[in-house]
Specification:
Blueprint (H helix, E strand, L loop, with lengths): L1 H4 E5 L12 H28 L5 H25 L4 H14 L20 H36 L1 H23 L7 H4 L1 H10 L4 H26 E5 L1
Helix pairs in contact: 2-5, 3-4, 3-5, 4-5, 5-6, 5-9, 6-9
Length: 236
């Protein structure tokens, strides 16, 4: 029987807490790097068609790596020194500041121009989707890693609360980037002016829509990722 040969087992993230840098984390980064390089290949093919679409695609994909790397550092640090709360808080704030850049690339799909009779339309559709997909995967993996850091450092209740709060905040960050054309580093370079804008627009209808719908999207995708990574079918 199938279930006599296989069993569903739960992966306990505390189980390997003595391993600060794990092979799983390194392999994940290498795999995501390969996926990102493949996205650039799509863009090079597009140049052969009719010139580059917009090199901001590559820039936005690069920006999706910032929260991924910050989350990886937070994950490693939480394994090595789980009691150093200030460092985890600083890394978490930095991660949240750049995290919206990852799912932001979903909104780049609006750049697709449709002409069903041209092959370039179908290439652009695949290319834009692929860029958005890789960037979104970077964001979801970063969310998984930083969530692990929160659970290890702050405990289950606070870690899960921070997770739930990060989802609508990411949606609002995408609104600020797409509609208000703000960048993540604007808060750092001119905090007084831009923090005022952030607070002022938080009750805008479009802002609420972005925050709620992206929170739902990210939440459902993260739930799938969490289940797949936390539970797996193992051969006995």
């Amino acid at each position: 029987m199938f279930f006599s040969r296989y069993r569903l087992s739960r992966i306990d993230f505390h189980r390997d807490k003595e391993s600060v840098v794990t092979i799983e984390g390194v392999v994940a980064l290498l795999l995501l790097l390969i996926l990102s390089l493949a996205a650039v290949v799509y863009h090079l093919i597009r140049i052969q068609y009719n010139g580059a679409v917009d090199f901001s695609l590559d820039w936005n994909l690069f920006l999706s790596w910032i929260p991924l790397l910050i989350a990886y550092v937070a994950r490693v640090h939480s394994r090595a020194r789980p009691k150093q709360y200030p460092v985890t808080i600083l890394l978490s704030f930095s991660w949240l500041l750049f995290f919206p850049n990852a799912p932001y690339m979903i909104t780049d799909l609006i750049h697709l121009s449709v002409d069903y009779g041209r092959n370039i339309t179908w290439h652009d559709a695949i290319m834009l989707f692929y860029y958005a997909q890789v960037s979104l995967i970077n964001g979801l993996i970063s969310l998984y890693w930083v969530h692990h850091a929160w659970l290890r450092v702050f405990g289950g209740r606070i870690g899960n609360i921070l997770l739930l709060l990060s989802l609508p905040l990411a949606g609002y960050g995408i609104y600020l980037g797409r509609i208000k054309r703000l960048n993540s580093w604007d808060i750092i370079t001119d905090p007084v002016r831009h923090l005022g804008l952030v607070v002022k627009d938080i009750t805008e209808k479009t802002a609420i829509l972005f925050a709620a719908e992206f929170a739902l999207l990210l939440g459902m995708l993260y739930l799938v990722l969490w289940v797949l990574l936390r539970y797996r079918i193992r051969k006995v």
